[in-house]
UniProtKB/TrEMBL annotation:
Gene: SLC16A7
Organism of provenance: Amphiprion ocellaris (Clown anemonefish)
Name under which the protein is recorded: Major facilitator superfamily (MFS) profile domain-containing protein
Gene3D superfamilies: MFS general substrate transporter like domains
GO terms of molecular function: monocarboxylic acid transmembrane transporter activity; symporter activity
NCBIfam families linked: 2A0113 (TIGR00892)
Region (Disordered) location: 436-479
Length: 479
């Protein structure tokens, strides 16, 4: 199997030290980024009754928020490259807090789309990409573990937010709950403060040789030129020429389309089955509780010498496992089995999201990862936007939730099988291309050696001819 591309960072990542504090900050930032759109589903029933919205209309709130979060990937990546992760995460946290506070005054579903979906989604986008990027700069050898711990923020916060939101809803209504949630999300600013830039240990500043001082105009021109170059880099469509990237992207799009609808409608499905509201909300907590342990555990497993070279196949297995859980869910009729489903859902979901960005880093390397993740997120915003509303439309049309789970499960399983088969093909082609390249290089080396030997023979022949000519000239002179 072909190894991952070599990283050209210009320094050796510390793989620890302050990096673990950065992981903690990323844990908070990513936790809010992924758990908030899911935990908001607790309020959907009350918002639906208050504003008179349908299932598909109410599902657009989380869908728009997630889509904007993913679509803002390239812009966030460019800003992170220009300003660093710390100010970007702090800005994103401020936007998230403001979005929830302003949404609490909403009187129409369109207003909630704008406040929660667009403003909040932009804030989450800044949080997510900046956190992922700085982890790739602090870690290399322990990167799967660091990613697993950071991505564990999503289930930890979901486990916490689901019952808290249910309590806030019962105590303050959905408007007061959104206001309090906005205040909680300001903690992302604190998380951003932990993300100080990487300082290479071999970076000498005191003894650096003096360089020519640039004039202000030259300096500004250089900054603009570099910023434009970075902007072009982070929207680089040449990634579509990379076979491994295209395979990863197609499988990922299929997963994202079916990933979030079961979470958005899980509580409503349980209530429809006759489960009490608090017990229905606890299903999300159970899923999150299992998920929080699965993600770091998956990171440890993926970091092992047996799994890391085969991490793309491990990712495929996680997707198939996740989709199979959804296919079996409509067969469940009791709350006890719903708890079992939530636990297995947490296992599958946690495995996928512990690996989803690590697999992209494995394919692209840390140097190209910010560019690649920006392009991936902007493509994924479309299935993210359409998935939950499409599932809600099925509920509106058929009046039954089972078609929702059948659709999501079948799409995810198909995506996992596609990744498995195509990765076998991709690695086979890479080995074949590598062998052909080695043969071509060997032929070139042989030709060069033959040319060198021919040149040596010609030189020796020339020297002999020159010596013979000198002898003949000497004999002629004597005569």
């Amino acid at each position: 199997m072909s190894p991952a591309p070599k990283d050209v960072l210009g320094y050796k990542p510390p793989d620890g030290g302050w990096g673990w504090m950065v992981v903690f900050g990323a844990h908070i930032s990513i936790g809010f980024a992924y758990s908030t759109p899911k935990a908001l589903s607790i309020f959907f029933k009350e918002i639906q009754m208050d504003l008179g919205a349908s299932y598909s209309e109410i599902a657009w709130i989380s869908s728009i928020m997630l889509a904007v979060m993913y679509a803002g990937g390239p812009v966030s990546s460019v800003l992170v490259t220009r300003f660093g992760s710390r100010p970007i995460v702090m800005t994103g946290g401020l936007m998230c807090g403001v979005s929830m506070a302003t949404a609490s005054f909403g009187s129409s579903i369109i207003y909630l789309y704008f406040c929660i979906g667009i403003i909040g989604g932009c804030g989450l986008s800044l949080n997510l990409n900046a956190s992922l990027t700085i982890i790739s700069k602090y870690f290399l050898v322990k990167r799967p573990l660091a990613n697993g711990l950071a991505m564990a923020g999503s289930p930890v916060f979901l486990c916490f937010l689901a019952p808290v939101n249910q309590y806030l809803l019962a105590r303050f209504g959905w408007r007061g709950s959104l206001l309090i949630l906005g205040g909680m999300m300001l903690n992302c600013c604190v998380a951003g403060a932990l993300m100080r830039p990487v300082t290479p240990p071999d970076k000498w500043t005191a003894f650096a040789p003096q360089t020519k001082v640039e004039q202000p105009n030259e300096h500004n021109t250089k900054i603009k030129r570099n910023f434009g170059r970075n902007a072009k880099k982070f929207l680089d469509l040449s990634f579509f020429k990379d076979r491994g990237f295209v395979i990863y992207l197609i499988g990922n799009v299929m997963f994202i389309f079916g990933a979030y609808a079961p979470i958005v409608f899980l509580s409503a499905y349980a209530i429809n089955q006759g489960v009490e509201k608090y017990s229905a909300a606890y299903l999300l907590s159970i899923m999150g509780f299992v998920d929080m342990f699965i993600r770091p555990a998956t990171g440890l497993i993926a970091n092992s010498k047996w799994i890391r070279p085969r991490i793309q196949y491990f990712f495929s297995f996680a997707m198939v496992f996740n989709g199979t859980c959804h296919l079996l869910c409509p067969l469940i009729k009791s709350y006890a089995f719903l708890v079992v489903y939530a636990a297995f859902f947490g296992i599958g979901f946690g495995m996928v999201f512990a690996l989803i960005f690590e697999c992209l880093m494995d394919l692209m390397g840390s140097q190209r990862f910010p560019s690649a993740v920006g392009l991936v997120t902007i493509v994924e915003c479309f299935p993210m936007l359409l998935g939950p509303p499409a599932a809600g439309l099925l509920v509106d049309v058929f009046g039954d939730y089972k078609y929702l789970f059948f659709m999501c499960g079948s799409v995810i399983v198909t995506g996992g099988l596609f990744l498995f088969v195509m990765n076998i093909y991709n690695y086979h082609m890479l080995d074949k291309e590598k062998a052909a390249k080695n043969n071509e290089q060997g032929q070139k080396d042989t030709e060069n050696q033959d040319q060198a030997k021919t040149s040596e023979v010609e030189m020796e022949q020339t020297e002999r001819n020159g010596a013979q000519q000198d002898v003949e000239n000497a004999e002629t002179v004597e005569i």
